[in-house]
Please model this.
Amino acid sequence: MEKSHIQLPGYKILEVIHVSSRTSVYRGEQETTKRSVIIKTANAQYPPLNELIALKNQFAITQKIDHPHIIKSYALEPYGNSYALIGEDIGGISVYDYAQSQPLGINMFLKIAIAVVKALEYLYNYKVIHKDIKPKTLLLIQKPIKLS
Model:
C-alpha cells in the first residue's frame, strides 16, 4: 500500500519508507538545519485517541532514552488532526529488506539478536514495553542495530 508524500511545514519529504494499516513512515530533511530525519504519521484523517496518545507517548519515552541501539526522537509536530513524530535517521535499512536481498548468516543473526536483547533490557529497566518488534522495525547500519 503506497501512500503519496505528505506536506509538513519545515520538512522536505524525500521518500516513503513504510506504510502500515495505521501509520506511515517517511525519510525527510529538516529544511532549516538540513538534518536527515524520519517522520512517522498516523494514516487516518481523524486518528482515534489511542493512536494520538501512542505517538505522544513514543515521543516522550524516546526523548528520555539514550541508548546506542534505540532511535532518538527530535520533535513532535502538529500534522492535520494528529502529530508527526520526527526522529533520528540513521540511514539504515530494515532487517526485513536486508534479508530479502541476501541470506542472513548466523554471525549477522547473532549480532542482531544481541543488539535487540540489549535494547530490550534497557527499555525493561525503564518499565517500557516495545509492542512492535519485527524485522521491518529493526534497522541495520554499519555500526549498531537500532530499534525504531
Residues 106-125 form the longest helix (20 residues). The mean pLDDT is 89.
